[in-house]
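hey so i finaly got around to running the thing on Paraquat-inducible membrane protein A from Colwellia ponticola. pasting the sequence first so u can double check i didnt mess up the copy paste, my clipboard has been acting weird all day
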Amino acid sequence: MKTAKQAGLALCPKCHKLNNVTSEPIQCSRCNGLFYQRNHHSLQYTLAWCVAALLAFIPANLYPIMIVYQLGIGEEATILSGIGEFINHGLYPIAIIIFTASIIVPLLKIIGLFVLVYKVHTGVRLKPNKHSKFYHVLELLGPWSMLDVFVVALMVTVVELGFVTSVAAGPAINYFTITVLFTMFAANSFDPRLLWDKKSAIQTQ
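ok and heres what it spat out for the 3d tokens, dont ask me to read them lol
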């Protein structure tokens, strides 16, 4: 099946007008906006953001996400230890929600983007009707990864902590916020149109 790129056509991202490609950047015949047939260095940017997100994800799970002060004595809690506390209190649904939002969703998004970059670079294909579905699933995961920003507040309000004088956010919350931002940048920098290009054309990107 012949693609729009092979036919010398490109869709304007602003007004969705189909334009003939004569040179780049392309000037839309309807809105006069400038755009490219394919985002330049899309794979490189996506890969760089994914690696940065993965590096930030490690300290996000190793460092304490919150510090609970009981009678002036601080006790640090990581994401995993917090999940363990929920399990110990029998709050399994909340533990599952936090584990999913904190561990599963970010990892799935990072790994999924790595897979897309690999498939585009090597030319290994899914079935044509699976390309867009796989990418849209990763897009849907984006808002769910933001749930972990509220993990600290959820722990404070739900778990019985006893005589608590104060609760402070730990350094892990900063790393996790960075992870979420970097995965968002990675998803936005990936050009899904590359999934439909032939391997020979991809290698010129």
